Sequence to fold (133 residues):
Amino acid sequence: CLATLIIMLVGDTYTLINYVSFINYLCYGVTIIGLIVLRWKKPKIFRPIKVNLLIPITYLAFWAFLLIFSLYSEPVVCGVGLIIILTGVPVFFLGVYWRNKPKCVNRLIESVTCWGQKLCFVVYPQEGVAEEE
Fold:
C-alpha cells in the first residue's frame, strides 16, 4: 500500500494502472500454475469445481506468450510491477515467517491489523471470544 501511495503521488494514474495490471496478470498465471501442481501432487483432495486439465494448460500457454510480450514491450513497467510485488516480502518475513517475535512486535502487528480491519470495515473471526449482545 505504501509503494502504491508513493507511486500515486509521484506518477500519473495511467502508469499505476499499467503496474497493477501486470501484477494482476502475473498473479493469475501463478494461481493457474498452483492449480496444476495441486492436481498433480494431490489428485484425491476435494474440489468443488473440476475442469479438464487442457483448459488451464491452454491458458498458461497464452499467459506465457502475453507475459513474454509484456516484458519485451514494456520492461520498465514490468520491472516496477515486480518491485511492487517484492515490497511484500519483508512484510511476509516480519508477520508470518518469523515465529518467535518479541511481544512488542506482536502488539504492533495486532494493532496494525486491527486498524486495517476498522479502516476497511472487515472483521476477522477470533476463536474463544464470546459474541457481544
